[in-house]
Amino acid sequence: MTATRLPLRFQVGARTLFAVERRLIRVALGLGEPLPALPALDRGVDGYAITSLPEVQLAELSGEGFITFVRQRYTRHFIDLTTGFDAYLAALSANTRSGIKRKAKKLAQVSGGALDIRRYRNPAEIEAFHTIARGISAKTYQEKLLGGGLPDDPGFIGAMVRAAAADAVRAWLLYIGDRPVAYLYCSMAGGTVRYDHVGHDPDVAELSPGSVLQIEAMRDLFAEGCHRRFDFTEGEGQHKRQFATGGVACVDVLLLRPTIANRATLLALAGFDGAMALGKRLVERFGLQALARRIRR
Questions:
Q1: Which of 63, 69, 160, 184 is most exposed by smallest CB count within 10 Å?
Q2: Element housing 49 (H / E)
């Protein structure tokens, strides 16, 4: 593990107001993965940024010689892929099932009578998928505001193709007519399928293409019969909660050297995050959600 300069962002929703950089070793844990022994820090390295630490392990981070700061708490959601597709559907709420059926029917109607889902897994297919999905990604707010779209650099594309050659990738596109409107890209390792990159054309958001594509991708993965879990990765979200069958309570943690600069940074982060939490409670109390969404974006 090597240290890199990572921004500690002061964010309002998707909008970053400013950021403070620190040299940190990033420790990204998998679904339910225990914390390994942390490598020693070189001079000039500020500490560690640990993501998706199971919350039950937080007490173990006594951080002797370090300041421990919890940046966020969330449930890391997953789908159990060993139950069979019919059992999975039956476990979803009645509202979710009826909503999926209604959305799929509406999309099929505007697509000429049937859903047009296209599947990609070998190297040539994955290269074609990337070209098409990039066109969708460029339109999304995740890419425009967060820089979180489908990557376009040669290193990522090369890694995609190598993973496809090892049969460690699955990808899907949803079309309306001849127009691609949603994509889902997943890497695979050790029986776990990861929700790596997803997006849809905002012009057709009212048709819920992402939800329909999600359930069709699940249908395919269950049919393969060789996967254990679908990992929705870090962070919360209504989409994840709606489709998940379980979850692990996780925290993202900063473990920093107790320098004056680091103490000041964490004090500022704590004050800012506290103000944002108070603002969220006030928004919910006075019904200002629509205004808050406009401000965040």
A1: 63
A2: strand 47-54
**Same domain, residue pair 220 and 152:** yes
- How many domains does the structure of the chain reveal? 2
Statement to judge: residues 220 and 89 lie in one domain: yes
Count helices and strands in the chain by DSSP H and E runs: 9, 10
Low-confidence ranges of the chain (pLDDT < 50): none
pLDDT number for residue 284: 81
d(CA 13, CA 296): 5
Q: And the tokens for 289?
A: 């959600």
The dihedral built from the CA positions of residue 176, 178, 181 and 182, taken in this order, carries a sign that is positive
Please tell me the distance from the alpha carbon of residue 250 to that of residue 71, in angstroms, as a whole number: 11
Residues 180 and 110 in one domain: yes
Which residue range forms the structural domain that includes residue 289?
3-75+248-296
Residue 286's pLDDT is 77
Token couple for 124: 């040539």
- Please state the pTM of the whole predicted model: 0.88
Residues 134 and 187 in one domain: yes
In a domain, 241, yes or no: no
Q: Which pLDDT value is given to residue 11?
A: 82
Which residues have a Cβ under 8 Å from the Cβ of 164 and sit 6 or more positions away?
A: 121, 122, 123, 125, 126
Phi and psi (nearest 5°) for 4?
A: -135, 165
% helix, strand, coil for the chain, step of 5: 40, 30, 25
Question: Is 36 part of a structural domain of the chain?
Answer: yes
Q: How far apart are CA 253 and CA 62, in angstroms?
A: 12
pLDDT at 85: 98
Q: Is residue 50 part of a domain?
A: yes
Give the per-residue pLDDT at 297: 53
pLDDT, residue 289, reads: 63
Q: Is 232 within a domain?
A: no
- At 145 the pLDDT is 67
State the Cα–Cα distance between residues 108 and 1, nearest whole angstrom.
48
Query: Which pLDDT score is estimated for 16?
Result: 81
